[in-house]
Amino acid sequence: MVITPLLLLEGVAKTFPNGTAALRGVDLRIVPGRVHGLLGANGAGKSTLIKILAGALTASCGTIRWKGEAAQWKTPQAAKAAGIATLYQHIPLVPTLSALENVLLDQGGWCRHLPAERRRIAALVASLGDPFGLDTVVGDLPIGARQMVALAQALAGGAEMVVMDEPTASLAGHEREAVYATIRRLAREGKAVLFVSHFIDEIVALTDEVTVLRDGMVALSAPTYDLNEASIAQAIAGRVVRALDKSGRSQGGTGNVVALRDVGSPGTLAPVTLDLAAGEVVGIAGVLGSGRTELLHAIFGADPRATGSVSVDGRQIERLPEASVDAGIALVPEDRARQGYVPQFTVAENISLAHLRQFAHAGLFPSGAREGAFAAEMIVRLAIRAPGADALVTELSGGNAQKVVIGKWLTPHTRLLLLDEPTAGIDVGARTDILRLIRRLADEGLTTILVSSEFEELIAVCDRILVMRDGAVVAERAADGCTEEELILLAGGTRPSLAAGAQA
């Protein structure tokens, strides 16, 4: 029996004013009463597609049909009014209001205070398994219950299709099971669900159909029963990974420089024990919420709850950022614009920012000449394209700004470089420059821990790779001989033995 689609996309494309083609002719068919899984690597086009369905973006071309009629929503309110509700991973609720007030937040006017409205919402929440009390302040609810408040808010507005963007990424195991049960209940009631996730195992277990996006196009679209985790991983990867030139590669050096002993953080990061050699590049693979960034922060001393010890050259250091910097540990954060550099400062001022005492007379009086000389050295060493050391960092491209953020740590004193998504948001050419720089620094003896959502980058530049999921290291692989598909399977929940077998 042919089921009429609730939502039908044909040849939908989106090109941004800067020329970036985020979607390149996507076809998608969503039917009522089914759960449709959507996967893809970072930059595959998932977020752009979700925003088009939510009314936050409009498609550049292509056809969207909703209930058989051509449609294109120009605002999120229009999409909601049509019957499409979008739940984002970062839940936009008001923490100081009650659950009931949040559920009815979109429904203004005096009617939302009527007893009949309370009874209606109580019945709706009961159909979801009573995951929260109507009068409980949302800020007091666990994250899983907040997800349910957002879902109730969507359903209270009459949604016929629910788009769930990474709804389980930040949830504990029992909270995930509650979300799964609710999604299955919605499908039985005839709702359509578009379920976006990085976790391949839950996609296989939960969905009826699967679509994989790659480079803005549909790489795979099939019923879930025709697929397995290995075929989905292959569709996500879809390309041959080529390592950087290995001539002169250090292969991890000869002596341990950094020792981590049971480094963790209660509730977010399981204890990690790791030894790192001089010149070694260790990659951290994992999806959003896996604990990658939390591990870097715990090592750097930026997490006040962190436990365990960090030693550099045999000396245990105090768990504070200042002590880490003094010991030669450097952190390049993911959000370079907010945390990596000061927008109002010049290239020279930003590059010298981490080591002001080295560029000051008697350690007190700033020396512009010393700052400028060091900045000029870094501009040449890192091939930073800038008008000069006195140019504002905001005048640079994303790739060159990232080189500035890395460059400020490249003193002889630095022993461990922590890089969190250093190639995010920069063009392909600049990305290659950054990867080659990481490899060159390793060949010079600098030890590096590299977090990247682009697993092929990890394979290309790292000596070994740790895979994280749910705040714990679940596997370790040598980069040579490892495949992107294997890392995707491991990060997505497949057991190490099965992931290795899938590549055989």
Give an overview in words.
The protein is of the alpha/beta class. The chain has 18 helices and 22 strands. The chain has 3 domains: 7-237, 3-Layer(aba) Sandwich (Rossmann fold), CATH 3.40.50; 241-328 and 413-504, Rossmann fold; 340-412, no CATH class. Helix content is 33%, strand content 24%. The strands form 5 sheets. The protein has a 6-stranded mixed beta sheet with strand order 6-7-8-3-9-10, with helices on both faces. The longest helix is centred in the middle third of the chain and has 16 residues, at 173-188. The protein is globular. The two termini are 39 Å apart. Residues 246-252 have low confidence and may be disordered.
Query: Main sheet?
Result: 6 strands, mixed
Strand content: 15-25%
Number of helices: 18
Q: Do you know the CATH architecture of the largest domain?
A: 3-Layer(aba) Sandwich
Provide the CATH superfamily of the largest domain.
P-loop containing nucleotide triphosphate hydrolases
Tell me the total number of β-strands: 22
Q: What is the CATH C-level name of the largest domain?
A: Alpha Beta
Strand order of the largest sheet: 6-7-8-3-9-10
Structural domains: how many: 3
Provide mean pLDDT, rounded: 84
Q: Which structural class is indicated by helix and strand composition?
A: alpha/beta
Helix content: 25-40%
Determine the CATH topology of the largest domain. Answer: Rossmann fold
